[in-house]
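Project standup — Tuesday

K.O.: blocked on the structure for the chain from last sprint. Re-posting the sequence here as requested.
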Amino acid sequence: MPTNDPTAFDARRSALAIIGAEHGAFEAALGDLVGQLDLLHASRVAPDPGVFDRRLSALATFIETFHHPKEDEFLFRAVRERTRQADDLLAELQYDHARSPDRLRELRLALSSTRHGASSQFEDFASLLERHARGQLAHMHLENRLLIPVAERVLLAADWEAIDAAFRSNRAPPMDTGAAIA
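H.V.: unblocked you, prediction finished:
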């Protein structure tokens, strides 16, 4: 049963703040990338695939190296150990995590095809990027609105301390979202 121990509260608050900050940074980076598509469409400027490639690399590193492993190994595992009520949700979230590298590879392959200059190839990439961004936002919504409340109800002080330690020890670097893509 969860505790009212102040140390546990601090660990929970710290872990949730880091998770929230990482979700916020990822959402901002995705929004910026999709926003750049809008600017390119409006200005009719040819995109620089190299800039998109660097941004996608940064997103992939962030999500695959820093964020998903901590969720899978610490948050999801702890929730699964404390309750069966989130099993379907956890299965869906972990399935998304497992598919993420393939989705990112697909994006990079689509981007690679834009180097040949056909605007239709860039439109295919843009459409795929927009779908990917919507999927990632929906995924984070499930975590924030459904999983986190379950975790807050069922996790013990020791669970939060382990989750907090894992998230603090493997902090993601800031993502560059400032450079224009045109």
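K.O.: great, moving the ticket to review. The helical segments are 6-43, 49-82, 87-113, 119-154, 157-169. The first helix runs from residue 6 to 43.
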